[in-house]
Amino acid sequence: xxxxxxxxxxxxxxxxxxxxxxxxxxxxxxxxxxxxxxxxxxxxxxxxxxxxxxxxxxxxxxxxxxxxxxxxxxxxxxxxxxxxxxxxxxxxxxxxxxxxxxxxxxxxxxxxxxxxxxxxxxxxxxxxxxxxxxxxxxxxxxxxxxxxxxxxxxxxxxxxxxxxxxxxxxxxxxxxxxxxxxxxxxxxxxxxxxxxxxxxxxxxxxxxxxxxxxxxxxxxxxxxxx
Amino acid sequence: xxxxxxxxxxxxxxxxxxxxxxxxxxxxxxxxxxxxxxxxxxxxxxxxxxxxxxxxxxxxxxxxxxxxxxxxxxxxxxxxxxxxxxxxxxxxxxxxxxxxxxxxxxxxxxxxxxxxxxxxxxxxxxxxxxxxxxxxxxxxxxxxxxxxxxxxxxxxxxxxxxxxxxxxxxxxxxxxxxxxxxxxxxxxxxxxxxxxxxxxxxxxxxxxxxxxxxxxxxxxxxxxxxxxxxxxxxxxxxxxxxxxxxxxxxx
Lengths: 226, 251
Hints:
The complex is a heterodimer of chains A (226) and B (251). Chain A is mostly helical and 226 residues long. Chain A contains 9 helices and no strands. The two termini of chain A are 28 Å apart. Chain B has helices at residues 15-24, 31-43, 45-63, 77-83, 87-96, 103-130, 134-162, 182-191, 201-245. Chain B is built from 9 helices and no strands. At the A-B interface, α2, α3, α4, α5 and α6 of A face α1, α3, α4 and α5 of B.
């Protein structure tokens, strides 16, 4: 499985270091500037795509496919299903590009991808018996670098598997909210807009989901400590 | 917090636990909440443990690795050609735009108002006559006077007949042996705006009066039906728009 790699921050446009979520959901000035630049670039590409430039749209795909895949694979725990969901999201975005009125193309795409992932779950109507099976594969190798240390690699793999399993143990709504908040760094209001529920519901899902994760990881918390 | 085991969460989240969860999620707390949290952290090792574990899990979740995507998701020219909306879809898409999105509720409202007006135009005249309004009372009074007048004349005609004179033709419509009761007359009049020709002077006055009053209601029925037709058409258009341009992933 040589195409598997670690992706901590899959969005190439995102800052290298994620904002400190424990300090509060407030983006830094640097984040805001970068966000504005990204939005301007995306709007220009959307305009070109609307005039029939497929390359412009595919540039958007290149920018966001890793990010969307990382998001949906956390929710679906199935690489093929995640790829299908993201592909459907890009199809839908291309078909409805003229209807994009929002400020953030990234958020718009995220909402579409989350809906696609939810559709996949609805169709499947069952949870996979073995989430992230590729993580069990001994042939799995992280990319060279800091993780080249075998012990470190094993630890990271174990942590990722634990988190993946625990995420599959909470409800889909809680999982989606937690992934959007803790992993992707959206704030409560953005998540509410994306998922079409109230601010209070988003908070409740995150709070209850975190407590549920704590219960599920109760016996393995030592493995998560550095 | 101390009342609950450290690794058990119930459906109900206590206020203290919620406070810890909110703080671990980076939510701003007001001064009283902050003071309460500080007090809890200072007094309870379990609360400190809870917050530390929640922060640890949040960090681990953010740092958890995910597998790389399995294929390139760029669109091919064939995909683009297949997905490009047709002219009809683009035209209908205008109605699906913000502002055009109000089509369905507007159509539904028009249809509803139309039906209500049509129903009101049909039912209110009869309801108004049935109710104890002044109009109904005058209607009853006029009907009673006409009945009394007819009774007097029938008595006189009976006397003439008994005396061998020519029989008077019954002014009531054929097949109606008994004159309708007051209520029946009202319903009949309400249902037929055109006054029936009758030789009975009193009844003619009453029918003309009710018919005149039913004119605006008839107009109301027509307007209501027109609105209902327009609303139905707009509703059909909105359904067509939704089918041609709707995308379940965009909800």
